[in-house]
Design a protein that fits this description.
Largest sheet: 8 strands, antiparallel, barrel
Strand content: over 45%
Low-confidence stretches: 35-39
Number of domains: 1
Helix content: under 10%
Radius of gyration: 24 Å
Order of helices and strands: HEEEEEEEE
CATH class: Mainly Beta
Structural class: mainly beta
Strand order of the largest sheet: 1-2-3-4-5-6-7-8
CATH architecture: Beta Barrel
Number of strands: 8
Mean pLDDT: 82
């Protein structure tokens, strides 16, 4: 019984004794061993967005535009799990233009990760005044080609405060992280 107790006490000490990481490889190769961080790589990305947009408003039914949109998103990556986005989107339904900014939080999965974000900004609706809008977003994306190319799917709800019709956007994106 005493031997078992001694073994159980010594087991955590033996498990914590790990060899130190080596740093004699090429510069920047110390990832995972307490070496250098990726502070000089991949801080910015640029994405093209396109997909369907459906607007829930009686006023917009008078327009003949296709239920599509195109957009562009520029992002600053604070880390692999956090981004700050600035995006613009043109909706063909009623000719509105969204200019939104806000954070996006990503899971740490690799190469596929899920994200959740909240953007806020100006929604320019034709024949009305500019509206302040909120846009919660959810989606998934994949990084490949040495973490530089990203592609994904997402869903966003654009809510203009004060009226103008809520826009539901389902879209794909392709971008480059540099």
């Amino acid at each position: 019984m005493k031997r078992l107790a001694l073994l159980l006490l010594a087991l955590p000490l033996a498990a914590s004794a790990q060899p130190r990481g080596r740093t004699d490889g090429p510069e920047g190769s110390e990832y995972g061993t307490g070496g250098y961080s990726r502070s000089s790589e991949g801080h910015f990305s640029l994405e093209a967005n396109w997909g369907a947009s459906l607007i829930d408003d009686q006023y917009t039914r008078d327009f003949d535009g296709a239920p599509l949109f195109v957009g562009l998103t520029a992002s600053y990556w604070g880390d692999d799990w956090y981004q700050m986005d600035l995006s613009g989107a043109y909706l063909f339904n009623d000719g509105r233009f969204n200019l939104l900014a806000g954070p996006r939080f990503r899971t740490t999965g690799y190469p596929v990760s899920f994200h959740l974000g909240l953007k806020a900004g100006a929604i320019f609706i034709p024949d009305t005044t500019v509206r302040f809008g909120l846009s919660p977003q959810v989606g998934a994306d994949v990084l490949f080609a040495n973490d530089h190319v990203l592609a994904g799917l997402a869903y966003a709800v654009d809510v203009p405060v004060g009226g103008g019709g809520v826009a539901n956007r389902i879209f794909m994106n392709v971008g480059y992280r540099f």
